[in-house]
Amino acid sequence: MQYCDLNESIVGWSSEEVVVPYWSPLDNKPHRYYVDFWVKTMTAEGKEECMLIEIKPRNKTSKPELGNKKMTRAKINEMRDWIINSSKWEAAEKFCEARGWKFKVLTEKDIFGRGKERNAP
What we know:
By secondary structure, the protein is an alpha+beta fold. It has one domain. The protein is 31% helix and 31% strand. The protein has helices at residues 2-6, 73-99, 108-112, and strands at 10-15, 19-24, 29-34, 37-42, 48-55, 102-106. The model is unreliable at 116-121 (pLDDT under 50).
């Protein structure tokens, strides 16, 4: 949020105000996804660009490996989270594409850089 406030190329932003409808394959029902950030920037050429940004821990951004081990409660929850997040992100990409926007998922590595996940700048 400080980055958005202090970055001169960002001309507008909001947190959890854009709602993206999505369909959950877990319960086969519609849901509402409140994306973490909407950001509007101004390019050097004076063109406005909008982007939706989701912030997630890096370990939540790839499909969990099942392996040959017994399905534990933790592994079931990991798979459940992955299925829901994948559905949300697919819907967000389509939502953005229809508006000429971009969609990004950022992790601690994107925000803090390599090796600085626990120490904010």
